[in-house]
Amino acid sequence: MNTPSSQILSTDVVIIGAGPCGLFAVFELGLLDLHCHLVDILDKPGGQCSELYPEKPIYDIPAIPVINGQELTDGLMEQIKPFKPAFHLGQMAEKLEKQENGRWRLETDAGTVFDAQCVVIAAGGGSFMPKKPPIPGIEAYEGKSVFYAVRHMEDFRDKHLMIVGGGDSALDWTLNLQPLAQSLTLVHRRNEFRAAPDSVAKMRALEAEGKIRFITGQVKALQGTDGTLEAVDVTDADKNIQSLPCERLLPFFGLTMKLGPLADFGITLENNLIPVDTEKFETDQPGLFAIGDICTYPGKLKLILSGFHEAALMSRQVFRYCRPDEKLRFEYTTSSSSLQEKLGVSEAKEAKRA
């Protein structure tokens, strides 16, 4: 959704970031009758869960033994449907300023302008980009033969794959893609890994069984035409060069997180994170909040479930700014008929009785 700069969108809350924490914030704010607009640089909701590991299992969401990133996003999107949030995707929050009336004016690089009582920054670590390996000409293969994330595992079925890296992502995708691949080679510059010991042990077992090849070395050159990869030249620990068949190359060298324009919003930062209090998750500027990985406080844990907790407490203070003349009542969704009505639960119960 692109809005002409001449049109100003007035709302209760603008949320910068449409990842899991931003999406759950919509739910918590919606229960308090607060309407939200969300801005995200990505072209779809879900943040890192959808962009980097949509099919990677997550094991620490309460009461859900296992769920992948896309399933979590889909569930959150379904949960917030009753509140009809407005999404502005493929846009970067570019300018934020406090107005004389105490409200916030936010502008995006697409010309969308918001007038909001409160702003919630749920931008993870900011805008994130993969760290690219220093391989000559790699740009010509990106998006066709070279990928920095796995979005659809089936795209790699029956292919000659090469995964480069020694962290959790490299090992996790080695284990997950091996059953699909025609062949899989893992390349890492050292024989030691930064990944979970259990993942390393499983990878070693696959190597011992001859199901994958592991090379201690580095990728030096790519061979192919018109973005279609055919082979990769690898220099091993003994400086020998091997040319290996490869149709898909997955370099996992980590991500570079950049705050981008957020760094110019006048917010106090600590190591590129936003300090907040642990009662309201408010910054040092009234009406400006931060939740999720972007915020910091004593004892902070960068977990999705922590971000959900932060969203719940943040919403209470936002209500006080947006509805200063109304009393804030604490209600449980399990027993409150008014909350159930907002969620459409009452209608479902009546339909079931009928």
Structure description:
The chain is of the alpha/beta class and 354 residues long. It folds into 2 domains: 8-128 and 256-323, 3-Layer(bba) Sandwich (FAD/NAD(P)-binding domain), CATH 3.50.50.60; 133-253, FAD/NAD(P)-binding domain. The protein contains 8 helices and 19 strands. It is elongated, with a radius of gyration of 23 Å. The two termini are 40 Å apart.
Sheet/helix structural class = alpha/beta
Low-confidence stretches: 1-6
Annotated CATH homologous superfamily of the largest domain: FAD/NAD(P)-binding domain
Q: SSE order, as H and E?
A: EHEHEEHEEEEEEHEHEEEEEEEEHHH
* Helical coverage, percent range: 10-25%
Number of individual domains: 2
Compute the CA-based radius of gyration.
23 Å
Number of strand segments:
19
Supply the number of helical segments. 8
Strand content: 25-35%
